[in-house]
Amino acid sequence: MDEKYRLAIPYLEKASQKVNQEGSYYFPFKELGGARFMLSQYARAKDTLLIAEKMGDAFPLTIGTLGVCFDKLGDRKNAMTYYHRYLGLNPDNTAMTKMVKGRLSKLE
Predict the structure, then answer these.
(1) How far apart are CA 12 and CA 108, in angstroms?
(2) What is the enclosing helix (H) or strand (E) of 11?
(3) Is 58 helix (H, G, I), strand (E, B) or coil?
(4) All residues at 6 or more sequence positions from 35 whose CB lies less than 8 Å from its CB, including other chains
């Protein structure tokens, strides 16, 4: 599965370079950040997903993934902030929600 993300990254990088970051078309950044996350490139995923968020991406998966990135990078404060935001956006009992609640109980 990692291979498909590795193969997608160059295309997503090209697509994101063509997008005006002052606009609201964040899809290439969201997908590039997700691919980097799946390859455990947490710092690069975080940076890319923060661009998507700045452009207007407020979907629960993006916010939750940012929390995980910060968590993996040892940034407890930002991890908790994004985990709480995720829970505010997505209170349903999903696997990610369970993981976020478990991590918050350890971080707080």
Answers:
(1) 36
(2) helix 2-17
(3) coil
(4) 5, 8, 9, 12
